Amino acid sequence: MSAVRSLEPWRWLGVPMVQALGVTVLFAIPLQLWGLQLPEPVFPMAAVFAWGVIRPSILAPVAAVIMGLFLDILWGGAVGLWALILLIAYALVLGGRSMTAGQSRGAMWIWYAVVTALAMGAGFLIVALRDKAMPSLLATAWQYLATIVLYPFAYRLIDMFEDADVRFR
Amino acid sequence: MSLRDSPLGELKVPLTWTAAIAVIVAIVAVVAVLVSDRRETFRAEAYGATRGVADRVLTPVGDALSAPGRWTGDGIEAVKGYFFAISENRRLKAELKEMSQWRDVAYALKNENTRYRTILGLKTDPPIPMVAARVVLDSRGPFANTRLANAGKEKGVQVGNPVLSENGLVGRIMGVTTGASRVLLTTDTASKIPVMIDRTNARAILTGDGGPNPKLDYLRGQNPVREGDRVMTSGDGGVMPRGLPVGTAVKGLDGRWRVVLAADKSPIDFVRILLFEDFTQLVNQKELAEKHVPPPTVGAQTVGVIPAAPPAAAPKPATGTAKPAATPPAKPPATTGAAKPDAKAATTKSGASAKPTDGKTAAAAKTPATTKPPTAKSTTTKPAAKPPAKSSAPKPAADTTGAGSDEPPH
User: Fold this and answer.
1) Which pLDDT tens digits describe chain B residue by residue (410 residues)?
2) Residue A93 placed within a domain
3) Which chain B residues have a beta carbon less than 8 Å from that of A2?
4) Is residue A2 situated within a structural domain?
5) Chain B partners of A69 at a C-beta cutoff of 8 Å?
């Protein structure tokens, strides 16, 4: 019997996934406050970023795809678009793992903003090519800003599980 | 022998590499799904069963989640109504006074319109049945702007049906299932709706970009639009009925003409789905694709063998056929007026509007052949009459009404 206590996937993948999707559904209700609609941040982006930082995993990309497909179906967009955006974000975080190890919270927030910008930029290009119409830069910027303020959630997830698996300390 | 004892048991692949491979495989799969997605085609089969099932599940969830917000809003409205009843009463009285004047104008115009229609024999659009629905979920991002409404197949909703709020056009139905339908908003990047400027009758395509104000693309003519012009659906292409209010034109910060949507005046909580069938739904695509070639008439010459008619004889059939088709008050202005309201009217009255300079010349020039009695003789003379009519029609005009010129006359 191994002495190493491995990290249970449902704890660091399953629970955040359900939480992110639940909050996304909540934010999709047609509610207007003083004539203003609710913002539409991409909650799964925070979870995907945290997963890439916590540890490499085969299940994480699968979870990212599930979340992306859910977003596409919930928001009525092209199926596969958000799955691809989230996978791009995960791939970037995974690729930069050695670079981001031991960085301060501020630096990680900047890295999160960069990753989100690149992933959403890719999404912007894909939509422009697919629909032959350039999406509004302002609308994209709003969603981007609403997403990057979610970093504290990603940080909390990282903080909870970064040292949970001794093999990745 | 256990795996640990085997030579491969000691083989350790770095987890980062396996994760990277998983990412690549997932990206390939997702790209394949994305490429095969055809949500912008407005075909029922393109929407997919998965989306249908998901919409069906999400509708009651969204309905339940949005209920507290709805109740709170209703409560606030009730309280406001109680405390501001007097000022509201004053405002309504003033509005009623103004509206009663407009009512008289409307009666006069309605009467005048009825007379004109009778004189011109105009075929007006039949009333369109509609279904009311509540919006239970919506998306507002730059890449998708849709809403989920709680009325579906059971109420006769079909893909392509226009959706209106109390103020104006909201979008079109892009997917429908039992108890739910997905509305593609006019602001979505996949949304392209033919519209017209009310003042100048200029046509444009309303193209969404994920922002609140969709663009007016393909505007033609000199100064076709001014700030504050009303924009409405043109009905071109038969996708939507003509005259649905869309919004007002404004110059965007990027220098492009955009539309402030009328539907944005108030929250879109309830919508009306017009059970309007567009031409693509009415037409049997299979039948349309089949080419029914009539059997050759015994003794008659085929089209290719017939010698071209002399140019002098060309205008004759056009004027000759225009005469019986033209109703007594078929003056030129009247014909253009008849051609304006809708495409159907233009085709039914096209015998009177056979004007060479008119934009619809190609469609109009074709109809005389149809007005002829379908005798064996007419089948032989038809091709002879066609080339002069085509040659008299200027080519650019034929291009602008290309669909009409290629289609068989109804």
Assistant:
1) 555 566 655 656 678 888 999 999 999 999 999 998 887 777 777 787 888 889 899 999 998 998 888 888 889 888 988 889 999 999 999 999 999 999 999 999 999 998 988 888 877 777 788 999 999 998 888 999 999 999 999 999 999 899 999 899 999 999 999 999 999 999 999 999 999 999 898 999 999 998 889 999 998 878 889 999 999 999 888 888 888 999 999 998 888 999 999 998 877 889 999 998 766 556 666 776 777 666 766 666 555 545 545 554 444 444 333 343 333 443 333 333 333 334 333 333 333 333 333 333 333 333 333 333 333 333 333 433 343 333 333 333 333 333 333 333 33
2) yes
3) none
4) no
5) 33
Within a domain: A169? no
Euclidean distance between CA atoms A12 and A60, whole angstroms: 10
Rounded Cα distance, A100 and A94, in Å:
10
pTM, two decimal places: 0.71
* Closest to B233 in 3D by CA, of B192, B272, B265: B192
Do B371 and B351 contact (CB within 8 A), yes or no? yes
Q: Are B169 and B161 in contact (CB under 8 A)?
A: no
User: Structural domain of residue A117, as residue ranges?
Assistant: 9-164
**A26: distance to nearest CA of chain B, Å?**
7
Gap between the Cα atoms of B196 and B404, Å rounded: 19
Q: Helix H segments across B38-178?
A: 44-47, 49-83, 85-120
Q: Could you give the C-alpha distances from B293 to B88, B290, B296, B367, in angstroms and in order? A: 68, 9, 9, 20
Task: Select the residue of B30, B143, B192 nearest A83 (Cβ to Cβ).
Answer: B30
Query: Looking at beta carbons, which residues of chain A come within 8 Å of B139?
Result: 28, 40, 74-77
When divided into structural domains, chain A yields a total of 1
Question: What is the residue whose two structure tokens read 């104008």?
Answer: B105
In angstroms, the CA B376 to CA A8 distance is: 84
Given a contact cutoff of 8 angstroms between Cβ atoms, the answer to whether B161 and B170 are in contact is no
Contact B65 A26 (CB under 8 A): yes
Confirm if B168 and B246 have CB atoms less than 8 A apart. yes
In 3D space, the residue among A14, A71, A65, A39 whose CA is nearest the CA of residue A148 turns out to be A39
Residue B322 is inside which H or E element, if any? helix B315-325
Tell me the CATH number at A91: 1.10.1760
Q: Which residue carries 């199926």 as its tokens?
A: A79
ipTM: 0.88
Strands B162-164 and B270-274: antiparallel
A139 located within any domain = yes
If you compute the radius of gyration of chain A from its CA atoms, what whole number of angstroms results?
A: 16
Instruction: Tell me which chain A residue has its CA closest to the CA of residue B51.
Output: A73
Query: Taking a contact as any Cβ pair under 8 Å apart, which residues of chain B between 371 and 410 contact chain A?
Result: none
> Any bridge partners for residue B193, and if so which?
B206
